[in-house]
Structure formats: structure tokens, C-alpha cells
Amino acid sequence: MTWKIRQKLRALLEAETSLHSGARGRGGQLSVCLAYPNSYQTAMSSLGFQTIFGLLAESPGILCERTFLPDREDLGEYRRSGTPLLSLESQRPVADFDVVAFSTSFEPDYLHIPLMLELARIPVLAAERSDANPLVMAGGAAFFINPEPVADLLDVVCIGEGEELIPALVSCLMSPQRGGRAGLLSTLAARPGFYVPYLYQPQYDADGHPTGFASAPDAPLPVARACPALEHHRPASSLILTNNTEFGDMFLVEVSRGCPRGCRFCSAGFIYGPFRQQPFEHLAAAVDNGLKHRSKVGLVGAAVSDYHAIGRLCGYIVAKGAKVSVSSLRIDRLDDTMLDALTASGHKTISLAPEGGSQRLRDLIRKNLSERQILDACDMLISRDILNLKLYFIIGLPTETDGDLDELLRLVEAIRERVLERARANKRIGEICLSVNPFIPKPFTPFQWCGMEPLVSLERKVKLLEAAVRAMPNVRLKVESLRESYLQALLSRGDRRLSGMLVAMATGSSLKKAAKQCGIDTDGYVCRDIPEGAILPWSVIGTADEGLLRKEYERAMERKP
Q: 79: exposed, middle or buried (C-beta count within 10 Å: 0-12, 13-18, 19+)?
């Protein structure tokens, strides 16, 4: 029944505390529904989603509301009652908005976009929409890594960061346009950072490999990425607080964007352009505001430890009588002031990311960490009685052998011995959580040409690790789902031919069944090593310099430092 859905939405809304003056209660000439293709809890834990909501809500003339993927129980209620997908704020049908804008940083959320459009009663394919339908657009890190698997579902894709793109987008949307929807899309396509998929038609050879894109005369190829200067914008921080999220007890603030390290498997060092840091004074002001509502501050960024004043900032927060939290620490950037602040904040577990199990692999991925540095970092934490360590490793990296796994296990055992020695002295047991993820090749990284290791081989390696860890007391192994990682790799490396498969999966088909129905060879996308000079499906967007990435790939394979 519709009243159950509305009651649930009202309860979520009433549990929120808004820190943003433009977030509620204002009308506008143009209505935008910001959609997160996952649950409310996941969406409101995302600083990126909250930032985009704030930018839209404060734009003159814009009424912005939110919508989310219904949970399983609510999804059944929507279908039983025949209720169209509703917005959170006014419980208005999403199809009644002028614009529906999806935002996510994670490729697996692509699966939910066709489902949400179908629930909203909006034609799933962009080619089937008319001026009577909302403009459907999308943005977020996932989309400026590779938007192609969902390009046929979208009218516009934002390639870059919201602080730069939202003002330009709003300006276009609010200006009179000749030619209706097509005229608006042409205007957007002429601006940096806006990708209009229907103006670019992918081409393939007889074997089905991409050969390029046929673009409309005025459509730039590739589409340029938009990148703002962070110091000109206030720090991204929590705008809406609610206990119905993973970080409900925290005020989140972004300290930096991008990563200066350039690890060869990770997109964060390449897709955001230069590493940019917020001025300390801006962060201190954001923290002061947040501490009016929460007593714990979460520092966010791909490279939090690399923030130039991380110790000073952590000390500032603790001196205010609050607690500080960080997601993970860079092993070679541990700061005494920061660690003292984390200890004072009651941290019992710290996460570190050696990533490569052997020195050879750490050099290959350009982690720039020695075993001595890793052990010294663990000693620094253990000396502060932080005896629970979470260690992140990647298996299936290019050129990995069983010998590299043996080195990984030897390193874990050396760390375990250090933890146990301190634990015996303190008569308190510590634990090591060995968190293992398979290598997933990501666009716009030096390893974008490398295929993912076949599942059968990865499953064998996981069994090897499981057997070894069983013989290590106080060590727990946690492995990311290999099947879900395979799907993520498929979406990361896919092209537009996946759109039909995603639509089929949205109606309940399994990946295997949907791929068979659509004639998709998933292994061909996931496990194939892409040869030099081959056209990449995501080359339609210019997120990073392919030539520089290729040189870095060759340096890795030649074992050059």
C-alpha cells in the first residue's frame, strides 16, 4: 500500500538534521531529483552524494530532492501497490521532475539504474524518451572512469567534479534553449565535462573489438574532464546528519582530493588530476561547525595521511574535546601527533595497506614501500597498544606467482609475532584481519591493459591462503567475493553492448543468463589482455593521458623503478 512507502520516507526525513540552509523548503523554477542507485544508508554515507545535493540545493532557481533504491521489502511494496518511485522530501513521483540525476562512485551500482528508471516509469533507454520525460543524467567517479556500460540509458554524463560542473549545468538548464531537448543536449556537449552519448556512436571490427567513435560534427572527441581548484571551494563535509547510516555518529570532512602516489592499479592517483589539499583554516572552520552536532570527526580522502597538516588537524580535533577517525593510514606517513590523537579517540583497530605481498609486487605496483617500513609502522602502532590491525592485500596482480603469496604469508607471520609479543606483556590478545581483494583492472590506470586473473585461478589462491591462515592463531582471513569482483571488472572494462545485459539483469536475470541472452562473452571483457594500440571502450572521455599511462605500464613490466 502506498501509505507504507510514504510513512517510511517520512520517517527517514524526520530523522535527519540538516546543516545546509538550502537543503529544504525552497521552491524553484526547475526541479531536479538526485538519485543514488543504492540504499538510503549507503547514499547518505557518501560525502560525494551529499556534496552534489548541497551544490544543487543552493543553486538559484533549482528545487532539489532525493531518491534512492528501495530495499527489498520496499521494492516488493512498490510493485504490489503499483506505486511509482517517489522522492524523499515531498513523496512526489520521480517522473514528474524536470531532471533525474544519478550519482555514484561505484560501478556495481550501474545494475540499479535501469531498475530505478523502470520503477519511476521513465523509459529506460535514452533513445525512447521524448520532451515529455525528465532529462536523465549521471555523474560521480564511476562515470568519469567508464560510463559506456550505461551510456545508452543516459542523456548526459558529467565527466569531472561537481564543484566545477554544477554551475555550468544549472546555467544551461535555466537558459532558454532552441530546439527543445536536442538543442539543450547540443549546448551541453559543447562545454567541457559534459558527455552526450547519442552524439558518439561506437564502431567495432569484425571480431567485435572497438575501433573508435563516430562523433557528431560539433561534438568534441575526447570529452574533456572538468577539475576544480579545491582551495576556491569550501571543504566537502556532511550537510545532512542521520543515524540511519554507517557513519551516523560522525561529521565527515574531505581533507584532500586525488592521490600523489600513483599506484599503478589504482584510479585515484590518475582520474582526479593533481593532488589537491584544503587549507588548514578551511578545515578547522568546517570542523568547528560539525562539532556543534557531533563529537566525532571522520577525515575523508584517498590519501588522508598525505595531507600536509594531518597531525595538526587531528590534534586540533582532539583539543576540542572530540574524537577523530580515518579510514586507513599510509604506512610511510605515520605521524606521532596523528597517532596520539587516534589513540586518544579510542581507536583499537587501525587499517594499513601493504597491497603487494612481496617486495617484487610492491615495486611492480609502485607502492614504494619496503618490508622494513611496513614492520616499523606496525611497531609504532603496537607500541601504543593498538593490537588489532587490518591489513589490505591484493591477489592476482599482473605477474603474480605462488612465491609472492608465500612472501605475503611470511610478512603476516612477522607482524603477528610482534602483536603477540606485546599482547603477552599486556595480557590482552590482539588480532590481525587479513583483508584480501582480487586485482580488478581499472580504466585510466597503467594496468588498464591487463586482464583480471581467471576465477578458477583466484579460487585456488584463496584456498591456499585459507589453509595457511588456519595455522596462524589470532589471524582472520576476509576475502572479497570473487564473483562480485568479476562483475565489477566487467562493468569497469565494458562498452555499450552491456546495456542490454544490465536491463535484463534488472528484471531478475542472473549475469550468466543475461549475458547469454545478449550474446556477451564476459570473459572476453574481464580476462583479456588488451594489446598496445587497441582502442579502449572508455577512450571517448579524456580523463587521463593514455600515452603517459602506457609509458608507466611499460616501466612496470620492464621492472624499472
A: exposed
